[in-house]
Request: fold
Amino acid sequence: MTPKEVKTYYRFFGARHSILQLGNLIDFEVEGEGSHFLPRLRSLSQISFPWIFDKNRLLAWHNFIKKFEPHLKEAEEIESFYYDLLLNAAKKWHRQNPKRIICESYLKLLSYEGRLHDESSCYICEAPLGDHIALMQAFIPAHPECLYSASLSKEKIRILFETQKTVHLDDKDVHYLYDIVMKGF
Reply:
């Protein structure tokens, strides 16, 4: 992914070539663009972050990045929002809880795409929501009974959607939101 497009390139992995990992920020040149075969990446150099050798943070990063591939699968040209979202998340990954960064980034993504549902009725049964609500994929509100799920305070969700920050939530609530995000975008 570049700031303007999603591209597919060929990279030979042999004895003299390091393996690219998912989610690395790299600088590269393209060779053979416009040919009948996939163009090749050349002169690769990785731009590193301070958290890259922390296996727990790296695993969380890979899990987050994997959600973008199916979400942007058919896209060729994209707006810089997606690239900037990932770059900003990577820059603060070593200072904050990655689960909080993932949830906040997901809220920004939903808001940007116009998919942030701040409704007063259940998505499933369409009855008015009470003081406690559950969230389904894409943070769509529903009754906890309709989803057979744990719930959060409706006020907490309202503040979350308005501020797009998880600072007012405890770690248990953030883990609940993180599990929803990991189901897919």
